Amino acid sequence: MDVKNRLEMVTRLVNHQVEILELGNKIQNQIKGDFDKSQREYFLRQQLTAITEELGEGEDEGKVEVEEYRSKLEAMDLPEEARKEAERELSRLARMHPSSAEYTVASTYLDWITSLPWNIRTEDNLDIKRARKILDEDHYGLEKAKRRVIEYLAVRKLKPDTKGPILCFAGPPGTGKTSLGASIARALGRKFIRISLGGVRDEAEIRGHRRTYVGALPGRIIQGLRRAESKNPVFMLDEIDKLGSDFRGDPSSALLEVLDPQQNHTFVDHYLDVSFDLSEVMFITTANILETIPPALLDRLEVIELPGYTLDEKLKIAERYLIPRQVIENGLNPGQIRFTKAAKKEIISSYTREAGVRNLEREIANVCRGVASSVASGEITKAVIGVKNLYKYLGPPKVVSEIGTRISKPGVVIGLAWTPVGGELLFIEATAMKGNKELILTGQLGDVMKESAMAALSFMRSNAEAVGVDRDFYEKMDIHIHVPAGAIQKDGPSAGVAILTALASLLTQRPIKKDLAMTGEITLRGAVLPVGGIKDKVLAAHRWGIKTVILPKWNKKDLDDVPKDVQKDIRFHFVDEMMDVIKLALSSKRVNVTSGAVIEGS
Ligand SMILES: Nc1ncnc2c1ncn2[C@@H]1O[C@H](COP(=O)(O)OP(=O)(O)O)[C@@H](O)[C@H]1O
Ligand SMILES: [Mg+2]
């Protein structure tokens, strides 16, 4: 009953209640605030629509647009099916409010319909002489491809409704595949459209998304035709070998339909949902390699190979096309810069090493830019580019010929490899050390190549004496085979002959003859089997200045495809027996591997 205590307790209770009430009040206020705001917004919106309706503004805007589409559609020459669909969409549009989302969807659709070249075509120029002249103007050489194009024109001229085959230009990068397509369009007087299929994985990229998707668009074929503004352009499907496929569907099956002359007059894009006639389009495809093209697709294509250029051809391409173009592109006039022949050759062989001419053009551009900047700054008025000033513009040579230094020791052989960017030299090195019958294989070799190495070793062991090696050589020895240029995965059976020769060279201590390269598969019994890519491989050997090439006998016919001026620079040996390879490849000198001293021998 103590008054002080009781008052203290009352104060505490009252304070507690006050706090609860204050908090409740705060929350109440907050909620009311939120509610007021949304209500305010709602009222405002209601008023806004009421006002625009009252003024009839939005409607009018929509009406004008609808009328525009209507008159456009009337003026157009549309197929019946497309007209029906467009008119249906148009009447839907007329009933919609311009600010609604569906309105935009419908008007986008009508935009597409009204801007496609349903019945617009360019007149073909079938003057064959003129076409030939244009093709020659744009590209040097490429005889086979040009002849095929001219034949195509000739047939078109005689029989206008022929469905031509679909050409596929195949070859390493920079050999003129894409630009040849553009040139064909120019020769025919058609529009040129190019789409790159590299990395396309989604069927919808070819065929479009259904209109029900948010942000749906037609596929690339229809998009290309809209850009072409003509229904008969030359349509290049670039890099068809890089087409992917995954869970989003298989774009190659859509392409099959696009490229099939029996079906493509009724090609249906999912977005348009009506058929578009693709039968007058001239499709051309390009690829680096044919292996990754889906077989059904490849079956439709007529492959024309563009295998890469010889040194001579590159020189002519540089003189007639690349240099004049780069001179102008870099703001110089032809009198201000001159390349000596030696300098051109030097750029080709010491600054680039490629099947095509893309890097060559880049290096020429570098020189032109350097000269342009000196001319612009008033240092010089004109420049003559000789071998000596290349260093100034391009730096030290980028490609050093290592052949001489690398293969002077026994156990090193040059193989010829095939890659998607053309042929390449493959150095194969073998070495032996004290050990315990182990075979070490390095250089990112694939399984097939590893097996070739094992087969080669077994052959050496079973034929040691015939090759001239101690029969028990492997007893206290480890052998290591390495294929440098390390980061690149290497596989395939075609290095077999080279691996076996490397082993024979190592074990007999006889180095390989100078400037010699080889390719071929081996069997356990030492037979040499044919391999692919001969033309690319021989061109690569020629680029590197190889003088002698050993090839499987069965590949002899493949030499027909190799240009004559390359053939005359190289001596070919055709073999079907490993013993013959060893006889041909090993020099008679013996070099002691450890001391490097030359031991005169057999
Ligand atoms: N035979 C040739 N004659 C003239 N220029 C060529 C020739 N081959 C290639 N080029 C040029 O080389 C460059 C690369 O060609 P491009 O068509 O892009 O090669 P790809 O598509 O085969 O990779 C282009 O500038 C092209 O004009
Ligand atoms: Mg290309």
Architecture blueprint of SSEs:
Blueprint: H1 3-55, H2 57-75, H3 80-95, H4 101-115, H5 128-138, H6 143-158, E1 166-170, H7 177-188, E2 192-196, H8 203-207, H9 220-228, E3 234-238, H10 251-259, E4 267-268, E5 275-276, E6 282-287, H11 295-300, E7 301-305, H12 311-329, E8 337-339, H13 341-351, H14 358-376, E9 383-385, H15 387-394, H16 403-406, E10 412-419, E11 422-434, E12 438-442, H17 447-462, H18 464-467, E13 477-482, H19 496-508, E14 516-518, E15 521-522, E16 528-529, H20 534-543, E17 548-552, H21 564-567, E18 571-575, H22 578-585, E19 590-591, E20 598-599
Parallel strand pairs: 1-6, 1-7, 2-3, 3-6, 8-9, 12-13, 14-17, 17-18
Antiparallel strand pairs: 4-5, 10-11, 11-13, 15-16, 19-20
Helix pairs in contact: 2-3, 3-4, 5-6, 5-7, 12-13, 12-14, 13-15, 17-19, 19-22
This protein binds adenosine-5'-diphosphate and magnesium ion.
What is the gist of this entry?
The protein is α/β, with parallel strands linked by helices and 602 residues long.
Q: β content, as a range? A: 5-15%
- Count the beta strands: 20
Count of discrete structural domains: 4
Mean pLDDT, rounded to whole units?
Answer: 88
Largest sheet data: 5 strands, parallel
Inertia-based shape: extended
Please tally the helical runs, counting DSSP H or I stretches of 4 or more residues. Answer: 22
Name the strands of the widest sheet in spatial order: 2-3-6-1-7
Assembly type of the shown chains?
Answer: single chain
Radius of gyration, CA atoms, in whole angstroms:
36 Å
CATH topology of the largest domain: Ribosomal Protein S5, domain 2
The CATH C-level name of the largest domain is Alpha Beta
What is the share of helical residues?
40-55%
Bound molecules: adenosine-5'-diphosphate, magnesium ion
The N- and C-terminal alpha carbons lie at a distance of: 130 Å
**SS class:** alpha/beta
